[in-house]
Amino acid sequence: MNMEKHLPIGHSWRSSKWFILSTVAIALFAETFLYGFLVPILGEMIQDRLHVHPSKAQKLTSAVLALHGTLAVLSAPIIGHYADKNQNRKTALLLSLGWCIVGTGTVAGARSVPMLLLGRVMQGIAGSAVWIIGFATVADTISPNHIGFALSIMMSCANTGTIGGPAIAGLLLEVAGYWLTWSVPLVVLTIDFIARVCMIENPASPPSTSDGIPTETARLLPSRQEEQVSPEIGNLWRIMLCNGRAMTCLLTIIMGTTLNTSLDATLPLYVEEKFGWGPSTTGLLFAGLVVPGVLIGPVAGCLRDRIGTQIPTVFCATLQAIVLGVMGLAGSDIPWASAQNMGKPLYAACIVALGTLRPFVSGIAPVELTATTKAMQERSPGIFGPKGGMSRVFSMMDVAASLGMIIGPIIGGSLKEMLGYRYMSWTWSLVYLLLAALTICFLGPEDTDKAPRSEEEAHP
């Protein structure tokens, strides 16, 4: 009774799984919403507020958008390292929100290029922290039997922000003006702040014991032999990067993000050149890449929880390879696939098919990385430190996604210029066939149980 009297107001619902998941979902939505919100506004900012010469506008636009991914690559390992040392993830989430609020205000009020870049730096660091700490919080809160569904919900919320940010910003900028448009992110951040303040962490038991409570027969002090074999905290990076299962997941993230960002760089010009489609139709095509994933993502997560990741991933990666091969033919010189015949509907159908299949492939990474990390910690308690290594593992995922964001436009644009759009699509098709082969080799149901106990097992 005395303990109940000292509990915070609303402790039962503030510490419940549904509220913790809702808080992380709102945080991920806010991060992707703010990232995309700037895209339609950036052109007006550069011309009317920063007075940049038109000849430098494209270069500055690319630099501002690419800065987010670059910062994630640099900051994610540092954020993951310190997040694993701090058991209180709510504090880290609140600090990241503070950085995001200041950065958003700096971007909105920027009157010079350095101030705009400074604001993007703060937004990029805060966004990286949200992804790492948010996913780690979900992994620590949800049982392994439901982790696929939970992480799929998180990705659907993030994808909703990706769609909503540019759409709302573009609409309001035309009808309401600059500053009223920026009031929308303020509302989103306010809701995010309230949720993060209300949340009370309900962390999982430490990885060092099965239930977090020492038994009567447990040693109070480790033996000399246990002290000698106790692994060092810094071994996580090497162990994970030498694990086939983890590396397959990271390569999946890089491949998926590289394909998506290469389409960002090549699709608008290609459809305008081949089909005469303008910005509105191009926007619908990009919606076709994202909206199916928002709707189907939870279904893909439930399927992974029930039958595992290998079968859905191999099947859907192979289908994606076929779709990419067909997409390269749309609008080509082949009579039935030319722009005058079936080229337009064929290309649109391929885009929707890619968006539908993507959750079954790209969604494997968070689930498998979580399962692999927990298996290692169960087999060798303390292998990643007394508080586990989940944040550092998800920082690797963030780095992989950011690398894809950086190299995707470069590789996609180069392939299109040197070989043409058809051969670019066929190259991505071969990449997804390779991904299916890697999944067969490394993501079998028994591989998690064979996770190495220590760094020595990772390097036989």
TrEMBL record:
Membrane topology label: Multi-pass membrane protein
Keyword Transmembrane helix part of the UniProt annotation: yes
Keyword Transmembrane helix: yes
Pfam families in the record: MFS_1 (PF07690)
Primary site of residence: membrane
Entries under SUPFAM superfamilies matching the protein: MFS general substrate transporter
PANTHER family assigned to the protein according to its UniProt record, in alphabetical order: GH10249P (PTHR23506), MAJOR FACILITATOR SUPERFAMILY (MFS) PROFILE DOMAIN-CONTAINING PROTEIN-RELATED (PTHR23506:SF35)
Name used for this protein in its record: Major facilitator superfamily (MFS) profile domain-containing protein
Organism per entry: Penicillium coprophilum
